[in-house]
Amino acid sequence: MKEYKNEKEFLEDYDVNEFERLSMTSDILLLSVSDIKISNYRKTSKKMMSVLLVKRRDFPYKGKWCLPGGFLDPLSETLEECAKRVLKRETNLSNIYLEQLFTFDDVKRDPRTRVVSTSYVALVDKNRLTDISSDASWFDITLIEEKDDDVFITLDNGVDTISFTIHKTLRKMSTDRYDFSIVDNKDLAFDHAKVILAGLERIRNKINYTDIVFNMMPKYFTLGELQQVYEVILGKKLLDPAFRRIIAHKVEQTDKMQTGGGHRPSRLFKYKKN
Amino acid sequence: MKEYKNEKEFLEDYDVNEFERLSMTSDILLLSVSDIKISNYRKTSKKMMSVLLVKRRDFPYKGKWCLPGGFLDPLSETLEECAKRVLKRETNLSNIYLEQLFTFDDVKRDPRTRVVSTSYVALVDKNRLTDISSDASWFDITLIEEKDDDVFITLDNGVDTISFTIHKTLRKMSTDRYDFSIVDNKDLAFDHAKVILAGLERIRNKINYTDIVFNMMPKYFTLGELQQVYEVILGKKLLDPAFRRIIAHKVEQTDKMQTGGGHRPSRLFKYKKN
DNA sequence: TGAATAGTGTCTGTGAGACAATATTAT
DNA sequence: ATAATATTGTCTCACAGACACTATTCA
Fold first, then answer.
1. Does B112 lie in the same domain as B88?
2. Which residues of chain B have a CB within 8 Å of the CB of A103?
3. pLDDT tens across B217-227, in order?
4. For A98-137, what is each residue's pLDDT tens digit?
5. Do B192 and B59 fall within a single domain?
6. Do B111 and B237 share a structural domain?
7. How many CA atoms are closer than 13 Å to the CA of A191, on its beta-carbon side?
8. Domain shared by B155 and B256, yes or no
């Protein structure tokens, strides 16, 4: 092995092709909340979580749905910049909450070659979205936890329905980390089923000690709407008085009211930092 | 652009060198607890967190200390397998708690070429370590949070002392995520200062709702020792009765006692799952 | 008027924080 | 005997869970 006198000399002689190399992508789990209208004029609309998927135009997985993503340009951008570039392309927005989720790296996760993917969770208020990409579509999420650590997820955009099951295996020496294995998946490309589950769990775990939920809310909202978002993320009903106590210091009253339901109008609130 | 009839045909024709590629490494933040003996025969030894560093034999950063790590072999292994391989090399142990921490990817983080690093936190009881690698050494950690989101960290192995400061900037639209910037760092290679801080914060955040701490404890321990480990991780004193209440359901009494301190002997406990 | 949601009051139980008190060892 | 740690008892306060109750709208 050649001996170098200093780091500069070493770097000038360095051969980047000495080792086998690989490709990386950023994949984005863009989540939001959708309103499901109810026919009964008295009832309020139901909330659901929704995820943005894009239809693949090319091989591999041509014609299947997948999370928006793109290859990292190793010479010029970080993974987060790459994620922002993809988000801009798909939503035409630049100012979106973004958080690194997990790096998925199964050797065979991409049939072309070794591709490691760093996934990001992004949260947005749908009202901000005016022109999403023509190949993209919002899918409403239904998540059912079965008794035996199987999670059954259905995604629906009104036209296509995507269903898959993921089995969770508690990791050795851990009480909170699971390995995911995709049990059944016909319609979602790559390992994106895992990304979706990991992201939903991340949001669920963080909702109570952060303010992330407000990234999915419009500027003005009722406490009933906010509570519904909490409920759909946590997957359980909350008691009204308890919820209002907990949320009180995160919101600020306004003098606006929301009327028009067949019931008592409700006050509009806005997010209060700190 | 050529049109393919099916995925098989597409894959056979796929050119892996069409896009610029990059290298990846797994870097491991191996943490443990060390006992600092006190001269006074009555006093118990103090606990500190410690981290395993290795001295770089080659350029870049030749002669500096860094976290153990290694290049990913893209053809055969996952990042976690790579991390385990490095851990085996440095500690000769295979069964170590391991958890993916964060993927660090600044464009210029490695002077050779674009290298993205996925870091892992590993926790171990030092009593399990019989032969660590000759180029590796345990450094005791002193962490001081200054008022202005600067964190001052000192690492000491009895011979060398490494000090650096990291500035934390709250991320936009977030209440819990920070960007780290290395303010001052002479002795630690790469961006490993960030990895150390991120890992220590991860452990601190998880200690109260997981059982990770027991991965750093010997089989039998006193509640005083366990409390000290909590205190050093959390960076604050805890009240004895409160700690015992909280920890009670995670530990199991044994009939062993620890004697020999200049004071009342204390019962030895062991970890109780679930 | 009544269905539906908005919003408040209050009781209770749990559990953490705080502090006091007792127990037991080696020198 | 004493310094030091081990261990337990108990009071209080904050707060979430639970449930009851009142308020207000629109077809």
1. yes
2. 79, 100, 103, 118
3. 999 999 999 99
4. 999 999 999 999 999 999 999 999 999 999 998 899 999 9
5. yes
6. no
7. 24
8. no
